[in-house]
């Protein structure tokens, strides 16, 4: 039987809450190292869209990746959520930008430029759970599915997770699957 989305969300929130600070730091370090090896072995145009991690939800720490992208001359974009709709604006993150936390604990740059959506080659997506076909479940607002549906190019979609995939998750016609998910022990390709 395929479990309901809400059940899966709660299961993964609990799994993350159970990680100690030290465990999380070790796992973040492994994911960072694996992600950088993978980025170096690819030949991607240096434009990336990156989510910024919600610390209180124990999302995978993407700040080390942000530093690496800046050090290696990548253009880094992220998103700004609108309070009225499910739209996300694209923002450009200048090297060495500092952050405060905003709605839901999402880091928000102190300085940013709002820009038109850029044709980035890679997008890192937040998730709670994912399955062996690359379908992901997030916090359930559908921001990222809508964002992906609205762009007219096809970036490589990468998830980051501390855990292995579920066998199968429920999905709907609007759900857009990942191409890769980077975990501490291996990279899953879909
Ligand atoms: N880092 C990050 N950025 C993101 C997302 C995300 O999941 N992670 N989102 C992905 O779409 C969008 C924001 N959507 C979000 C929706 C709910 C919650 C959240 O924390 N929900 C809590 C309830 C919090 C509360 O009510 O105060 C929860 O569901 O437990 C976070 C982000 C856009 N940016
Ligand atoms: N492209 C879209 N167009 C219109 N509605 C959408 C689209 N994508 C998602 N939605 C709506 O958004 C809501 C949440 O979707 P879903 O359960 O797939 O979110 P999620 O993938 O868990 O969360 P998120 O993408 O925010 O991390 C659903 O009610 C869905 O109908």
TrEMBL record:
It catalyses: (6S)-5-formyl-5,6,7,8-tetrahydrofolate + ATP = (6R)-5,10-methenyltetrahydrofolate + ADP + phosphate. It is an enzyme of class 6 (ligase). One of its GO terms (biological process) is folic acid-containing compound biosynthetic process. InterPro entries: FTHF_cligase, FTHF_cligase-like_sf, NagB/RpiA_transferase-like. It holds the Pfam family 5-FTHF_cyc-lig. One of its GO terms (molecular function) is ATP binding. ATP binds at residues 5-9, 136-144. The keyword Glycoprotein does not apply. Signal peptide: none annotated. Its EC number is 6.3.3.2. Its cofactor is Mg(2+). PANTHER family: 5-FORMYLTETRAHYDROFOLATE CYCLO-LIGASE, ATPASE INHIBITOR/5-FORMYLTETRAHYDROFOLATE CYCLO-LIGASE. This is 5-formyltetrahydrofolate cyclo-ligase. It comes from Algoriphagus formosus. The lineage of its organism: Bacteria, Pseudomonadati, Bacteroidota, Cytophagia, Cytophagales.
